[in-house]
Amino acid sequence: MAGVEEVRGKQVVIRFEAGKCIHSRNCVLGHPEIFEPNVKGAWIHPDAASVETVARVAHACPSGAITYEVLGDGEAESLPTVNLMYVRENGPLAFNAPLVIDGDSVGFRATLCRCGDSKTKPYCDGSHAGAGFLATGEPAAQDSESLAVRNGELEVTPVPDGPLQVMGALEVVSGTGRTLNRVAKTFLCRCGASENKPYCDGSHKKINFKS
User: Fold this and answer.
1) Residues forming beta bridges with residue 94, ordered by sequence position
2) Per-domain boundaries in the chain
3) Tens of pLDDT along 74-90?
4) What's the pTM value of the predicted model, to 2 decimals?
5) Of 38, 86, 142, 193, which has the maximum CB count within 10 A?
């Protein structure tokens, strides 16, 4: 995983972790005044927009590669009121929750590999595109009851050569925003072979998946 690039402005600090970036390009296409594309040298400009705009760009970064820190008396990002995981069409699992991944607190956003080909597991690195990975973002919904608590810390543990074990309140959401499931514990496929995606069905053993 690549290191973190930190740029301090007058009111806000922007941090960019290249190893998490999946090149959704929301930042450079939506606000090139802050994230200037295709230049040599400095390309992150915290003072080019308001703190509120910087925050919106960070919130729109699905991978969590962009984070920010408000300086002075500004308000920090609030905790998500509902822990969500979006199932991306032919792509990764996108989380929005207070995440602890493999024992490390990593913030509120992350995109995790489900094709099995990422070189930066458990994070997505875009390998699904080159691998021709196919998996619907609209799997069938399951019957589930509303959770008594819908937020709080979400622990994601990559099982060696196996699935992602997820502990904590989580609502699984389709690419179009449909609620698919509500769980307090689940195992998610990351080998790419499950017939019950996004959930694990044990196929990692059949294909001798190595993480």
Assistant:
1) 86, 111
2) 4-70, 84-206
3) 777 888 999 999 999 99
4) 0.86
5) 86
